[in-house]
Design brief:
- The radius of gyration is 17 Å and the shape is globular.
- The protein is built from 9 helices and 9 strands.
- Strands 1, 2, 3, 4, 5, 6, 7, 8 and 9 form a 9-stranded mixed beta sheet that branches.
Length: 236
């Protein structure tokens, strides 16, 4: 039986995805890793198929189970919740632009088991130089190593406890949204759970690798908000 169920949703960006996969494969603990390929290119799909045995992960190609175009984060979370509950283990989301360290997953597990009313545990994100970056810039000057936070936790690298998974069915997630970290963070708090951020457990985050249009936020804000507001991309 695994200690954790680790999932990684993938939409192309194969270079960072392979780095993410290798880091998870080298992490401590008995971790079951599932890749959810969300309508990536045939090239990406081929690379993911070819590396399954090398890195010991399972691959689910969403095109085989749904006709709905990417993003399919709600479906990924629904399937993963059921898999985690089968073995009564935490669900950890590690996105395909995040590099965990050897002890990241095992440390998150240990904290989740001893923290009071734990709903979620997140690892803080940094750039490759170790500077805190998006989406946790508001914690840049935080002195505490463990923060019980009312801020929403990102799903960059976050553990969802079995108690939370048992308390709220992801079948209820709205199909009108694309991403659910804000909603689930708030749901966890509203149900009486605590959400914790570990500021002494950094992971490297390479933002928006699988959604390059989001870089427009920094280079061409007008075009970015056209994509977000008019085309209704990236709904949270």
């Amino acid at each position: 039986m695994p200690d954790l169920l680790v999932i990684t949703p993938v939409k192309d960006s194969i270079e960072t995805t392979l780095q993410t996969i290798e880091c998870i494969a080298n992490a401590e603990g008995e971790n079951r890793h599932i890749i959810y390929n969300d309508f990536s290119s045939e090239e990406t799909k081929g690379v993911l198929e070819a590396n399954k045995s090398k890195y010991n992960y399972e691959l689910v190609n969403l095109e085989e189970i749904t006709p709905t175009p990417s993003p399919n984060y709600n479906l990924v979370l629904q399937i993963a919740q059921k898999e985690a509950l089968k073995n009564n283990v935490p669900l950890v989301i590690v996105e395909s632009d995040v590099l965990v360290k050897k002890d990241t997953l095992s440390s998150m597990l240990k904290h989740s088991q001893k923290l009071a009313k734990c709903g979620m545990v997140g690892a803080i994100t940094t750039d490759e130089s170790g500077q805190i970056n998006f989406p946790y810039l508001n914690f840049k000057n935080e002195k505490k190593q463990l923060v019980n936070t009312s801020h929403s936790l990102s799903f960059c690298c976050t553990l969802l406890s079995p108690d939370l998974l048992k308390s709220f069915s992801f079948e209820e997630l709205s199909r009108e949204k694309d991403w659910y970290d804000v909603f689930i963070s708030r749901q966890s708090k509203s149900m009486g759970f605590n959400n914790y951020l570990l500021t002494n457990l950094p992971v490297v985050h390479m933002p928006h690798s699988s959604r390059p249009w989001k870089q427009l936020k920094y280079t061409n804000p007008v075009k970015y908000y056209y994509q977000k507001l008019i085309k209704r991309k990236d709904r949270i």
